[in-house]
User: Fold this.
Amino acid sequence: MELKNKYVLITGASGGIGKAIAQELSKQGAKLILVARHEERLKEVIDSLPNPSEHQYLCADLTTREGLTLLRNKARDHLQQNKKISVVINGAGTNQFRFLAQRDADSLQHEINLNLTTPILITQSALAWLDRPGIILNIGSTFGSIGYPGYTSYCAAKAGLHRFSEALDREMDGAGIRVLYLAPRATNTELNSDLVTQMNKTLGNHCDKPQVVAKHVIKMLKKETPAKWIGWPEKLFARINQLLPNLVTSSIRKQQETIHKFVKQAEE
Ligand SMILES: NC(=O)c1ccc[n+]([C@@H]2O[C@H](COP(=O)([O-])OP(=O)(O)OC[C@H]3O[C@@H](n4cnc5c(N)ncnc54)[C@H](OP(=O)(O)O)[C@@H]3O)[C@@H](O)[C@H]2O)c1
Assistant:
């Protein structure tokens, strides 16, 4: 899709990856609607863009019914004003690095809500107001393809988001809406605590700058690539995990001591 003058709605737009996506999209001439909970941070993102007056923001907690209604009303306003939104990027996400036994039920539900239920509900709503041709791009994770200790419910949510994106893209075949899925690997943002960043370094896991993810987003939107995994070893591991999961289990087993050490520190 050509992005110039297209209206693009981004959730999680004040986060590390969301802000980088907003900056890349604004360079492409897109007009943005940035969504997150905290106004100050959204304003900062808008002020960092080349033409701030062309972009808007919406404060909404997307795990609530009220937040989803605000988003739907905003999109309907656009529809009525003949300024239909052409692209939705579901980027809002969260995770907690802990073993399942140490998690409380509320935090598990919140994680599943924001990473899986929320993008499903926004996507369903978008079927009624998105321009055609239109694109929905869901931001997943390498952990959606590889079950990893300390991230069980996050892995579950992102795996669900991957299947959802694939299923709906097939369901909408020929109907003018594409549903794409991008799986970044570890990325340098506030999502990862200092401890997690330290663990990634110890394990030799590569950590991308958010701009790397944003550039992949632009390429995917332009080419309408159905799904993409960032990073070579991660891409390969995701494939091996499908075909020969025991190989991946053996490899993760070698990391267990380090993972346990860092999870313990996270719990202190
Ligand atoms: N960073 C990584 O290592 C990594 C790797 C793979 C995939 N990802 C995925 O990439 C996406 C972006 O992550 P990030 O690293 O940029 O995270 P981040 O820096 O923590 O940003 C999270 C964003 O989501 C918003 N948000 C959080 N809770 C919300 C809620 N209830 N309603 C509406 N917005 C909410 C936050 O703004 P407010 O707090 O103001 O609401 C913020 O804009 C996520 O889906 C994440 O799972 C990240």
Summary: The CA atoms of residues 14 and 123 lie 20 Å apart.
